[in-house]
Amino acid sequence: NPNIPGQKGIQIAGTINQPIKAAHDGEVVFAGAGNSGYGQLIIVRHNANTYTAYGYLSSINVKEGTKVKKGQAIAGMGNSFDGRTVLYFEIRTKGQTVNPMNYI
């Protein structure tokens, strides 16, 4: 959402605990809560240059090191800090964010 400072991805509205699916085959390189500002977060590495991030999760179904397949349920949708039920979704290629709308 370009209207929220610091956010490079998009927010996708849905329902609480709605299954969140991996965008492509890859390996989970982070799964948990950190200081990201996105609550519970999963980061998947798809190749040496491309990563996807999934934030505001109600649950996490994978661990770091887990190999995932495109379409595999990896988490449940949760709430953002303002109480909206959304998924934060971000794509990075070669360290730069790219517009996820080009891929969904």
TrEMBL record:
CDD domains in the record: M23_peptidase
The portions of this protein that span the membrane are none
Q: Which GO terms describe its molecular function?
A: metalloendopeptidase activity
InterPro entries recorded for this chain? Cell_wall_metabolism_enzyme, Dup_hybrid_motif, M23ase_b-sheet_dom
Domain M23ase beta-sheet core, first and last residues per copy: 7-100
Which protein are we looking at?
Answer: M23 family metallopeptidase
